[in-house]
């Protein structure tokens, strides 16, 4: 019996921040759903591990190791998709960093780095990806924002600013290009089981110190898994969401609905 074609059959996707967390989970799911995937991250060792997992399951992928905040990386990623696979259908802008600090003590260079990695990278990737998508009048761009774009707490000066900017960028691209066949949406995750949050828990003395905070903030009562977030991204990447553009999908276990 022939294997049923996946929801992304014949499509080519770029995933940034693909070495871990939401990026890794989404890259694996995209491959399971028959997309060819270009994996982008600054961590070459972890990137190769993800690539090995995809190839072991019979999927097809390429890697581009580089800083997403640089035009060179965007150019290499898009060129890789086009030169190897002949097209580009999906762009998942997911890479991000989250240094914490009060605005009065926050170094200017860290502010610049956060905005470069979290927001400028999406501008650069979209700038290079959209012309390729226009060749087929078709494409889906998904940008990772955060619940902290609208609901924040002390210390997340640059992070919250960058994540709010992502929602604005997403809407502008949607308004400009949806009529030309290119959809652009964002996701706003809450607490998710990522390496970043594991490190946060370790800095607090263990996960048992962090979970009371999660339960207070996120009515789901737990972190979402990267797989759960990946399925939301899959929907936005697939043709099932052809009428969805300019939206921000909350994946926060009702955190943004709570008082």
How do you describe this structure in short?
It comes from Paenibacillus baekrokdamisoli. The protein has helices at 21-32, 44-56, 71-85, 108-134, 157-177, 195-204, 207-217, 226-237, and strands at residues 12-16, 36-41, 61-65, 90-93, 139-144, 182-189, 248-251.
The CATH homologous superfamily is called NAD(P)-binding Rossmann-like Domain
Output the helix-strand order: EHEHEHEHEHEHHHE
Which CATH top level class fits? Alpha Beta
**CATH architecture designation:** 3-Layer(aba) Sandwich
Number of domains: 1
Distance between the amino and carboxyl termini = 52 Å
Shape label:
globular
**What would the CATH topology be?**
Rossmann fold
Could you describe the 3D structure shown?
The protein has a seven-stranded parallel sheet, with helices on both faces. The chain is built from eight helices and seven strands, in the order βαβαβαβαβαβαααβ. Strand 2, helix 2 (44-56) and strand 3 (61-65) form a beta-alpha-beta unit. The mean pLDDT is 94. The termini are far apart. Helix 1 (21-32) crosses helix 8 and helix 6 packs across helix 7 (207-217). It has a single domain, classed as NAD(P)-binding Rossmann-like Domain (Rossmann fold), CATH 3.40.50. With 259 residues, it is of the alpha/beta class. It is globular. The chain has helices at 21-32, 44-56, 71-85, 108-134, 157-177, 195-204, 207-217, 226-237; strands at residues 12-16, 36-41, 61-65, 90-93, 139-144, 182-189, 248-251. The longest helix is centred in the middle third of the chain and has 27 residues, at 108-134.
């Amino acid at each position: 019996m022939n294997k049923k074609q996946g929801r992304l059959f014949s499509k080519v996707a770029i995933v940034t921040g693909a070495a871990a967390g939401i990026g890794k989970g989404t890259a694996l799911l995209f491959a399971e759903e028959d997309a060819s995937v270009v994996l982008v991250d600054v961590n070459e060792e972890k990137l190769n591990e993800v690539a090995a997992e995809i190839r072991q399951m019979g999927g097809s992928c390429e890697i581009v190791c580089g800083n997403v905040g640089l035009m060179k990386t965007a150019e290499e990623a898009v060129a890789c998709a086009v030169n190897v696979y002949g097209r580009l259908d999906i762009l998942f802008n997911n890479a991000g960093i989250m240094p914490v600090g009060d605005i009065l003590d926050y170094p200017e260079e860290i502010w610049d780095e956060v905005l470069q990695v979290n927001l400028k990278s999406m501008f650069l990737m979209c700038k290079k990806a959209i012309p390729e998508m226009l060749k087929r009048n078709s494409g889906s761009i998904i940008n990772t924002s955060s619940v902290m774009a609208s609901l924040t707490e002390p210390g997340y000066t640059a992070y919250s600013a960058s994540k709010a900017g992502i929602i604005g960028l997403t809407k502008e691209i949607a308004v400009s290009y949806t009529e030309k066949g290119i959809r652009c949406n964002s996701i706003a995750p809450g607490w998710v089981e990522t390496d970043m949050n594991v490190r946060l828990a370790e800095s607090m003395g263990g996960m048992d110190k962090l979970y009371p905070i999660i339960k207070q903030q996120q009515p789901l009562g737990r972190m979402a898994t990267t797989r759960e977030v990946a399925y939301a991204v899959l929907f936005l990447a697939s043709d099932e969401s052809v009428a969805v553009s300019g939206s921000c999908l909350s994946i926060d276990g009702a955190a943004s609905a709570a008082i």
